[in-house]
Amino acid sequence: MEKERKGFWETIAFNRRNFIKLLVGGAVGTAVSPLPWKLTDDIAIWTQNWPWVPVPDAGEFSYAKTVCTLCPGGCGVKVRKTDNRPIKIEGRTDYPVNPGGICPLGAGGLQVLYNDNIRFPGPMKRVGPRGSGKFMDISWNEALKELAKRLAGLRRQGRPDAIVAVDGNPAGTTTSLLVQRFLKAVGSPNYERIPTAEDTYSMANWLTTGNKGPMAYDLENADFILSFGCGLIEGWGSPGRVLNAWGLWHSNPLARRVKIVQVEPRASNTASKADEWIAPLPGTETALALGLAHVIIREGLYHQGFVQGHAFGFTDWRSSDGKEHKGFKKLVLDNYSPEKVAQITGLKPSKIVSLARAFGRSRAPVALCGRGKGDLNGSLYEFMAIQCLNALKGNINQPGGVILSKPIPLSTWPEIQADSIAQKGLEKPRLDKAQTLQFPFTGSLINNLSEAILEKGKSPVDTLLIFSANPAFTLPDGGSFRKAMERIPYIVSFSPFKDDSALMADLILPDHTYLEKTEDIVWPRGLQYPLYALTKPVTSPLYNTRHNGDTLITLAKLVGGGPAASFPWSNYEQALRERVKGLFESGGGLTTYDQSAPAWKGFPSRRGVQSDYSSFEDMWKKLKSGGLWYYPAHDFGNWETIFETPSGAFEFASSRIELALNELSSRTYLGAALKEMGIRAKGDEVFVPHFEKGPVAEPESEYPLIMVPYTLINLSSTWAPNPPYLNKTLFDNQLRKDDSFVEINPQTASRYGLKQGDRIFIESPKGRIAVRVNLFEGAMPGVLFLPLGFGHRAYDAYERNKGANPNDIVNAGKDPISGHPVWWQTRVKILKA
Amino acid sequence: MMKEEKGKYKYGMVIDLDKCSGCGTCMVACASENNVSVRADESDKERSITWMQLFKITNGKPFPDTEVSYFPRPCMHCHHHTPCVSVCPATATRIDYNTGIVSQIYTRCIGCRYCQAACPYHARYFNWWDGYGLAKPFSKGLERALSPEVSVRMRGVVEKCSFCHHRLMSAKSKAYAEGRREIREDEYIPACAEACPTQAITFGDLNNPRHKVSQLIKSPRAFRLLERLGTEPKVYYLSSKSWVRKMADNYLPNQFQQVTKAMT
Amino acid sequence: MEQQMRSSGNSPKGGWLSTLIDLVLSYYARIISQPFQSGLVWFLGGLGGALFVGWILFPMALYSEQTQPINFSHAIHTMPDIGLDEPTELGRCLHCHSFRNDGTFAGIPKLETCMECHDDPESPLGETAEEKKFLKQYVANEKEVPWFSYYKQPDCVYFPHIAHVKMGKIDCRTCHGDHAKTDNLPLYKKNRLTKYSINIWGKHISGYKANTWDRMKMDDCAECHTKTGHEENNACFVCHK
Fold first, then answer.
1. ipTM rounded to 2 decimals
2. Predicted local distance difference test score (pLDDT) of residue A696
3. In a domain, A180, yes or no
4. Cα–Cα dist C45/A244, whole Å
5. Maximum Cα–Cα distance across chain A
6. Cβ neighbour number for residue A98 with a 10 Å cutoff
């Protein structure tokens, strides 16, 4: 009753009870408002849309056609774009090399373009110590002036030969020719190439057939393929082409026509997937080839017409000085019986005989030489021996055989204008002794160059220019070149990537990547018909980079004098266009391709190809848009005229070797000449392909095992950086965290008490590397197999310090005659880590 | 458990192991097509994401009779009692019997990883980290290659092969633009099949007898992985090699039959 | 009061239920009849406040508002005599909001499309202030107009316009309303949390949907698919990517 008498304000006072009422009212109100329900929903959706998860811009989809140049295979690719942004790389179906397919490296190409961490943003100058990767930005003008000043200075001092260029561009490409031309114009003879299988192919071809170009095989039309170590499905030749052929060969495995035999000491993918795998001891492939020749000759399985009518040195022969020499037939029959070869190679004699018979009885058998992907050189005598197998079957310049062609009819530029400084410089001897009497057939020998730099007191090289190459990483030389680089006062890298060699450079003049520029491909590796391809920029350059070709032209003009006069073009494209005129003048060739009629299919019967363009301008337009010119026909046979050897025939015994040896021995004596050329054989064997034990000198007692590097299709082992996506394709017994693995036969491993995953050191006289053990039955006992492509000291977290680089411990001797490194067998020992 | 229905299309894949070279192009093409993330360390196979995964097998014989071969393994898109679908508590993964494609909706996934445990083929992958965006320190610039056709995954969700179903949608849109309701056999092909340089992967509608896949699965070389589980995978393999076929674990010791010429 | 309770409690006629009802009624009667003394105002105050926050303040806070860079009149641009040479209204919609050859939908047109008509240097159709702004700021600088897209679905959604417009014969206004008749572009309202436009996320905060174009969430898609007999299109991978 007292309460009722209270005043109004007291009755509605804010007390505990009323506060609760307020809250209840609020709660009810909130519950019937959208706030809790909507907010819950929104928060749930918010968690699905984190602001840091990128939403890619969508736009109009389109494809830009171009050609892949991450390897010399030259596969046609199309880049999928949304508006102007490339988002994916796919294979082109309107391209004759790779009908639609592509390789993992090519598919991952965008990660080479887009990876900020491995690309130079523009021209740079070193600021930190060498190799520290500390650079500062400079302008293109400053950079070019600095280099031009240095080069002009060397020229003034009369030392143009102290300028050296290392060129990794495929031979014959316009950029490569511009590099060569630049070096010649400034007056340096020291132009170096990264040795590849192409070099050995060309030499073997030159000595046996007189053809200067690299080997080409009409694989798709062969019926028996005997591959000596070529990684047919692991990146050999043009991967898109060979893998496609592999698919064709296996389209009906239960009723197959083509037989594939792989010769290799390791159960590689090619060896496993081939019909037969032959595993000789590493480095004895030559003996096996000659053993097969022995059986083929002995059993009369060879092509009589070819061997009698168009071959030289098969039977005993007389040299220019009138001396009598034993021929290939006699030497092979004497020295390479299946039993003897079995002893050398570790194979069973019966296997050698049956393989020889299978090869000899096939219609179009072709024997292929090469090692893995072919990114590194091979052995000259081995390649010649394998070429002789093709000759025994007369499968030279035949459908399904070895194809001998003229070079692509590109125009040549006018001669350089060598000024007096250049003339004097060019007269100086090459630092690497290539193209001399000692190594008469080899264009350049970069392994000799590093020796020259390392042996003398002061480096004979002052300025090193590196183009599209990573010699500090890819050279199989036990790290010699890297050490040599440390002694070179000034290094300029033209690489778009922060690769191992660029990190040691003092000046960076970065190129565009292959997706940002126009460049040419001259005859994709191993293709049977001439093909000239042109890449097209699929995006405008992402960074402040310049085309190497343009950089060289500007540089030549800045140096002045002869170099300026030798580079009359205003840009790279002008120089390129001038060369292409020759294609038009040749009068034939196609710029389009129809998938329904594969180029190889009609190849054996097609006699000529009418051009599908009317004028040069028309052709240029089509070439620029489609990136393709090819001539898918061939003049087969012609054994009377095709061989450009001194004898005019296929040479089982090389008169060019004989001439070279004569010339060299006339200065000293024969024994010294043989030693200089690195030939261990004596007598008439020297002129014909023969087996020699490798140049390995270390005692077997100290280094009981052999280390053989191998290549993987899904791991870049050349200059091209490895796209991160390729790391996904590696197995965890190839790379695990930062360790790569060595493949060891379990039997060998148990001798050392090694288990799967154990960490070991592999040591050669050149050094040691740390790897883990992968027990693999497919590895030949006593041999250690290491993948090439790991162990970068540069790039980013995807590549740096991942795994070990077998090149670092390769103890390469010199291959006889060619002088190239013998990287495929190094004596090593195992140390437990 | 969803009731299995007969749908109009039933997309499936045939992988010819006799042709497969083990090059890994399918894996790279897949990752690139589907915005799959890439870590600095991809060697931890329990963490690395590979919708298409190559498995290397060997016949176990001593040198020199050793042979290796490869199983490319996409999602099998199991047609019967789809194991992942039946366990998903969030309905984030479903099978559409009208196409046969097993879907995975990232925005719906709660990251419980039950499906991962249920999948007999290890075809499902968990995002332990953000693939792009926060991963920037080591993948600077790579996000520029992302495709707008597939949404980018955030951490905490499961992802897997979708048979590139966005390509089916694009193919349909294109057909509609041209006034067609049906798409042609070659218009819808996943990225792996398209990129394969040996043409080892064939893709098509298993309900359509004219499609190449329907013919290929009748080959005596055809088999599937773990067929005895009864999940009816829609990915078939072809191999003429007995030791490869045995790896699929489909046979009791006395059941195995070699493929011979006579069977073709 | 104690007496009252006792007497009703002892009533022989009523059971315990009616007693309870009586009690509750009398309680509420007292509360309502004496709103101040009973504290009802406090309850109502809380209720009212919460409703105000939930229905008025919350939606205001949830959505950010932006004005389009240029006020574009769809009404003018869809007039039959505009010179587009398209007899139907749909045709006139599709003229600018076009399909590409691959069936994808171009969405908001690019400057290029605008320039089809606005590129005449003699009479670039720049009479109004908005047109002048368009010509000066964007056309002259060749800069795309940064339009806000009202109907942009989240990244996880794949929406093929062609399947709906061409094959489904659905009129544009079914989902977009009668946009073609508007002279002014509405404010662009974006949900601050989800970043979705209000046109996708629902015009009415209550979830009430008066028109088909009021909301475009997943259920709305599914509802229409089901209604039109396209239930098969409710599979996840039809709309999600």
1. 0.95
2. 61
3. no
4. 80
5. 148
6. 28
Sequence spans of domains, chain C: 2-64
Best to test chain C binding among B77, B176, B183 (most C CBs inside 10 Å): B176
Is residue A172 in a domain? no
Q: For the range B175-182, what are the long-range contacts, defined as Cβ-Cβ under 8 Å and sequence gap of 24 or more?
A: B175/C103, B176/C103, B176/C160, B176/C162, B176/C163, B176/C166, B176/C167, B177/C99, B177/C100, B177/C101, B177/C102, B177/C103, B177/C162, B177/C166, B178/C103, B181/C167
Residues 130-169 (B) with a CB less than 8 A from some CB of C: 149-152, 162, 165-166, 169
Q: Which residues of C touch B77 (CB under 8 A)?
A: none
Query: Which of A150-178 are b and which e, b meaning 16 or more Cβ less than 10 Å from the residue's Cβ?
Result: bbbebbeeebbbbbbbbbbbbbbbbbbbb
Q: What letters, b where the CB count within 10 A reaches 16 and e where it falls short, cover A331-356?
A: bbeebbbbebbbebbbbebebbbebb
User: For residue A5, what pLDDT is reported?
Assistant: 56
Angstroms from C129 CA to nearest CA on chain A: 30
Contacts for A39 with CB less than 8 Å, ≥ 6 apart: C58, C193
The pLDDT of residue A460 is above 70:
yes
Report which of A318, A351, A347, A352 is spatially closest to residue A332, judged by C-alpha positions: A352
Of the candidates A91, A247, A729, the beta carbon closest to that of B19 is on A247
Average pLDDT, chain C: 87
Cβ–Cβ contact A33 with C under 8 A = yes
Are the CB atoms for A631 and A610 separated by under 8 Å? no
Residues of chain B contacting residue C195, judged by C-beta atoms under 8 Å apart: none
Q: What is the pLDDT of residues B6-48, one digit of tens each?
A: 889 999 999 999 999 999 999 999 999 999 999 999 999 989 9
Domain containing A825: what range? 705-832
Determine the residue of chain A that is closest to B65 in CA distance.
Answer: A778
* Domains of chain B listed by start with CATH number: 11-263 (3.30.70.20)
In this complex, which of B139, B195, B221 lies closest to A91 when CB atoms are compared?
Answer: B195
Report the C-alpha gap between A403 and A799 in whole angstroms: 39
* Total structural domains within chain A: 3
Helix %, strand %, coil % for chain B, to 5? 25, 15, 60
List the single residue in A with minimal CA-CA distance to B51.
A728
Q: Can you tell me the distance from the alpha carbon of A154 to that of A152, in angstroms, rounded to the nearest whole number?
A: 5
How many residues would you count in chain B?
264
Q: Are strands A520-522 and A507-508 parallel, antiparallel or unpaired?
A: unpaired
Task: Say how many CB pairs under 8 Å bridge A and C.
Answer: 101
Residue A273 CA to residue B67 CA, distance in Å, equals: 8
**Of A559, A546, A337, which Cα lies nearest the Cα of A463?**
A559
Domain annotation covers residue A258: yes
**DSSP three-state, residue A98:** coil
Q: Which of B238, B151, B141, B212 is nearest to A55 (CA)?
A: B151
User: Largest alpha-carbon pair distance within chain C?
Assistant: 101
Tell whether C155 is within 8 A of chain B (Cβ): yes
Distance from CA of A654 to the nearest CA of B (A): 36
What pLDDT does C116 receive?
A: 84
Best residue in B17, B28, B65, B149 to probe A by mutation, most A CBs within 10 Å? B28
Q: What is the pLDDT of residues A478-532, one digit of tens each?
A: 999 999 999 999 999 999 999 999 999 999 999 999 999 999 999 999 999 999 9
- pLDDT per residue over A752-767, tens digit each? 999 999 999 999 999 9
Please list every residue in chain B whose beta carbon sits closer than 8 Å to the beta carbon of residue A798: 38, 40, 138
Helix (H, G, I), strand (E, B) or coil at A392: helix
User: Is A821 within a domain?
Assistant: yes
With residue A61 as reference, give the H or E element that holds it.
strand A61-67
Q: Running DSSP on this structure, what letter comes out for residue A171?
A: T
Does A420 score more than 90 pLDDT? yes
Residue whose C-alpha is closest to residue A292's, from A371, A351, A334, A204:
A351
CATH of the domain at A351: 3.40.228.10
